[in-house]
Design a protein that fits this description.
Blueprint: E1 6-11, E2 14-19, E3 25-30, H1 36-47, H2 52-62, E4 79-83, E5 87-92, E6 96-101, E7 104-109, H3 113-119, E8 127-130, H4 137-149, H5 153-163, E9 168-174, E10 177-182, E11 188-191, H6 197-211, E12 216-219, H7 231-245, E13 248-252, H8 256-268, E14 274-281, E15 287-293, H9 294-302
Parallel strand pairs: 3-13, 3-14, 8-12, 12-13
Antiparallel strand pairs: 1-2, 1-4, 4-5, 5-6, 6-7, 9-10, 10-11, 14-15
């Protein structure tokens, strides 16, 4: 089931936020510090409510969330993240965190959270979150194992050869290290680190979509590390792969070039199950969403109207 609408109350920068019209592919834009990452985190938390304590602990472990993020300093109200999928509420007390999912509550003492964080290091279902900071090898290895299980490794290798270097034959983990087999390097396995962060992020995104088959994939600041000349091909691969894997995509960006290439490929492929959302602040300084469906988005972009407000 796809996420179609969501409301977010009292979480980080969102006091009373609502968005409708979410589709298979969703690109979110807006100014810095307006809440793009918070929006992705909120949707992600709502998606994984069946195992929410693990996923909240994962966010805390990697440092993108703190216990204080689950306290509302303006109102003494719990955080509520409700959608057509789940109703989720979280609150942090002095000595515990209280999680309520679809009307069922559970209390976790603070001392249990380090234990939860230590038990599992990677997600184990079809909902995946790609952060904006560099991807570590443990996460990449997990995502790559999923594309192997799906028997789509050849598609990844073909994409690398077509979009980065025609001499790239294969990507794999050799003795625990990510490497590329390259023809013009004396036909040797070359450490992925020698190719820069862009190709690593490209591989991570493609693998993450297959790891999220029949689920959802969240990509924060999708353009990070990827040269703008690759944006168009990246969107073509994302559109085609997401459709084949039946994966709902949520990606954030502040890049005008990324938005333009999103528009061009959606138009070229007639990918109508897409949306574009701009986050803005109203006169009361509350964050609101302007959501463009395919037709409105294509019209505004074709008229050279600015969609980043």
């Amino acid at each position: 089931m796809k996420l179609k609408q969501i409301t977010i109350n009292n979480f980080k920068t969102f006091d009373d936020f609502k968005i409708e019209g979410l589709t298979q592919i969703n690109l979110i834009s807006g100014k810095n510090n307006i809440g793009k990452t918070t929006f992705l985190e909120s949707c992600y938390i709502n998606f994984v409510s069946h195992d929410i304590e693990h996923y909240i602990s994962s966010f805390i472990k990697r440092g993108s969330l703190k216990f204080s993020d689950f306290r509302n300093n303006k109102k003494l109200e719990k955080i509520c993240i409700n959608s057509n999928l789940n109703k989720t509420a979280v609150n942090v007390e002095t000595d515990s965190i209280i999680i309520e999912v679809n009307g069922i509550s559970k209390i976790y003492p603070h001392y249990e959270m380090p234990k939860l964080m230590g038990n599992r290091t990677v997600d184990n279902n079809n909902i995946n979150f790609i952060p904006s900071f560099p991807i570590n090898n443990d996460l990449l290895s997990y995502l790559f194992s999923k594309i192997q299980i799906a028997r789509k490794k050849d598609l990844l290798n073909k994409s690398l050869a077509e979009n980065f270097d025609e001499n790239i034959v294969e990507f794999d983990f050799i003795l625990g290290e990510p490497k590329l087999f390259v023809l013009n390097r004396e036909e040797a396995w070359v450490p992925l680190s020698e190719f820069g962060e862009g190709i690593k992020r490209f591989i991570s995104i493609i693998c993450a979509i297959w790891a999220s088959q029949d689920g959802a994939c969240f990509i924060d600041e999708i353009e990070d590390g990827i040269h703008y000349l690759h944006y168009k091909k990246l969107w073509k691969i994302i559109f085609n792969t997401a459709k084949e894997a039946n994966c709902q995509i949520f990606a954030s960006t502040h890049s005008k070039e990324m938005i333009e290439n999103y528009y061009q490929e959606a138009k070229n492929l007639e990918m109508k199950d897409i949306s574009f959302t701009t986050l803005v602040r109203d006169k009361k300084n509350h964050i609101k969403a302007i959501n463009y469906d395919f037709d409105w988005f294509i019209h505004e972009m074709s008229q050279n109207h600015e969609v980043r407000l």
